[in-house]
Amino acid sequence: MFEEASEVFDNMFKSSFPLTFIVFIPAVLILVSPLPTEAAHEFTVYRMQQYDLQGQPYGTRNAILNTEARTVEAEVLSRRCVIMRLVDFSYERYQKALRQSAGAVVIILPKNMSTMPQDIVQQFMELEPEMLATETIVPVYFALEDDELLSIYTQTLTTSSSQGSSSAAEVLIHTATANGFQMVTSGAQSKAVSDWAITSLEGRLAGTGGEDLPTIVLVAHYDSFGVAPWLSYGADSNGSGVSMLLELARLFSRLYTYKRTHAGYNLLFFVSGGGKFNYQGTKRWLEDNLDHTDSSLLQDNVAFVLCLDTLGNGDSLHLHVSKPPKEGTTQYALLKELETVISSQYPEVKFSMVHKKINLADDTLAWEHERFGIRRLPAFTLSHLNSHREAQRSSIMDVRSVSPSSRHGVGEPPAGPYVDLRKLSRNTKLIAESLARVIYNLTEKGAPGDLQIFTEQMQVQEEQLSSMVDWLTAQPRAAQLVDKDSSVVSTLEYHLGHYLKDVRRHYVKADKRDPEFVFYDQLKQTMNAYRVKPAIFDLLLAVCIAAYLGVIYLAIQHFGVLYSVVRRITAPKTKQH
Amino acid sequence: MLFLATFFPTWEGGAGVYDFVGEFMKATVDLADLLGLHLVMSRNAGKGEYKIMVAAMGWATAELVMSRCIPLWVGARGIEFDWKYIQMSFDSNISLVHYIAMAAVVWMFTRYDLPKSFRLPVTVLLGLCVYKAFLMELFVHVFLLGSWTALLVKAVLTGSISLCSLFLFVTLVHSN
């Protein structure tokens, strides 16, 4: 057999060269050419968080998927991509998908969150930390809804819910006409990002009147957190804190330029990164300043550290402390000034001090001031939230700001957490007044409770706050997305440089051998949805094509019959001639 | 195609209006197809039937390779399934029959012993063959046919043309 084949090849090569190409080229093409792709729909998907904190893994571990789409109503979910809409989302359904070892979960979020009813948003916010708490190998993605995605969802829904409820004939017709969808991501498997540097910024305003002046530190963390890093915009938590810090920096730098109002306190402003990951930026900053440098403002005379966290809304203010301040300290003075200012100028605000001891056995610290408390610096956190466990501190629903000039339209407030600019500017003024009273020792000097310093030229500028919050919420600020070259960091540095001196960057990189935090990549992918037919369909089609070819073959073989029929029909005519 | 691109100006009118005259002109160029078939058949020495069959099959295969191979290759191997490839395959079958009919009509047209009464039907059939594509597009545009319906209409049209030409052929061949 092989000799004959070689003979054939010899003849081919000898006789006509071009012909051989015609034989070989299709064979070569079959082997070599890659499979072209053209999807029914291509859309961006955002992956759920994946990180390790202090050795503990959180979130989803996988990024790639190449599975058929189904909705939750389908019976068989294993190795399928489960698509859910936010309106239908519930924890039981999510657990059901995970239990049946689904291939992936894609949650479709509406483009405009404000169309969602309040209870669904609340429920989702409560579920976010639960989804992250357990480590799962199923990749979970979030996609923003558009028309095509919605049509894909409805088609998949009809396919999934009709399974198992129809007769054999219906199933047969269904296989021929149904459209399945194959979801494929284009990226690679996720892996740990090495050498990620979390950036923090510091700046100072030096006091006047000698050496060894007491220092007041104002801190706010700028990163945001949510169930998906690319969707966490963090308006209230902590965009409000950062914009308030910048506004305070502006006001006090103005006060400090005039000799008459230059006070005898050093003001140190710190914008920290990695705040949502157990305050990594602050932790390393403290280590560097207290352990590794000879002289630093933090080592000497620190009056107190005030952390600003989530202050953009609400009619209450809570001062969270780990140790109630003793009488006679500057800490205590601030507490008293806050009470005075609120009771005389802002009676609608409910103020309280919340005492919570630092619990080192917990996985993560509660508030940022606890980092300072561990290093024996007097610190507290000011927030409108009562507890650090509030869901809105780490939710993707915390998206925007509402201003009284209502660019976003008058009417109902947004469903999720948001920044109310009027309340943010009220809180800023409140804190500024209290700080000024402490710095300039106004109560001792006999100033009345309703003395307002920040008025007219020194007014808190609401437009400044508004534009800051708008800029901050224009991009996601998750710690995994803001590296040292990011525009967020450089813009913050630029703004701080306007008002403060000695603006410096501070980097945190995870320790090589025992990393405190590990981030993973592949957080944003392009997913393709291909229209596919069920496997039975290919078989059916092949059978039909074989039948058709058989019929054609028979027709050609028996063409003579037709020929003779035609001949018989035409023959009498010619005989007549 | 090169001829078309060089000598026919692009249609500047609105998208909804169907350029009847332009498409008509373009279809007239298909007359060159007939010339080509005639040339092929004249070079082939043999009985009438063999000439027709060889020329038609060769022509149809060339058209298949040139116009349908690449789309099928590139498109049908993808993950997505589309009914248009099945339609394309049916279309190639139909055009095979069409070319056989066209070759037969051309052959009859050039016969010196064609009876006078046959001249008209043969010419009409020839015209139909050439402008079949144009007629098909007209139908699709005017009646807004779906793709499967258009295929059916095309099959019926080709079937009728080939039946007529078969009748004429048999009459011609067996009238002597």
Automatic annotation (TrEMBL), chain A:
Q: What cellular component terms from Gene Ontology apply here?
A: endoplasmic reticulum membrane
User: Per UniProt, what is the name of the gene that codes for the protein in this document?
Assistant: LOC120053753
The signal peptide here is none
- What biological-process GO terms show up in the record? regulation of signal transduction
The question of whether Thylakoid is a record keyword is answered with no
Looking at the record, which segments are called Disordered? Answer: 397-417
What is the membrane topology noted in the UniProt record heading this document?
Single-pass membrane protein
The protein's name is BOS complex subunit NCLN
Give UniProt keywords alphabetically.
Endoplasmic reticulum, Glycoprotein, Membrane, Signal, Transmembrane, Transmembrane helix
The record, for PANTHER family, names: NICALIN
Q: Where are the transmembrane segments?
A: 12-32, 535-556
One Pfam family matching this protein? Peptidase_M28
Q: Which residues form the Peptidase M28 domain?
A: 214-372
Q: Could you tell me where this protein is found in the cell?
A: Endoplasmic reticulum membrane
Please give the organism: Salvelinus namaycush (Lake trout)
Q: Which InterPro entries match?
A: Nicalin, Peptidase_M28
Report the SUPFAM superfamilies cross-referenced here. Zn-dependent exopeptidases
The UniProt family comment states: Belongs to the nicastrin family.
Automatic annotation (TrEMBL), chain B:
Which Pfam families does the record match to this protein? DUF2053 (PF09767)
Q: Which UniProt keywords apply?
A: Cell membrane, Endoplasmic reticulum, Membrane, Transmembrane, Transmembrane helix
Q: Which InterPro entries match?
A: TMEM147 (IPR019164)
The entry's protein name is BOS complex subunit TMEM147
Gene coding for it: LOC120030779
Q: Which GO terms describe its cellular component?
A: endoplasmic reticulum membrane; plasma membrane
Homology family: Belongs to the TMEM147 family.
> Does the record's keyword annotation contain Glycosyltransferase?
no
What does the organism's lineage look like at the top? Eukaryota, Metazoa, Chordata, Craniata, Vertebrata
| Subcellular location per the Swiss-Prot or TrEMBL entry | Cell membrane; Endoplasmic reticulum membrane
Transmembrane stretches in the record are 52-74, 94-110, 122-145, 151-173
The superkingdom listed in its UniProt entry is Eukaryota
- Membrane topology reported for the UniProt record: Multi-pass membrane protein
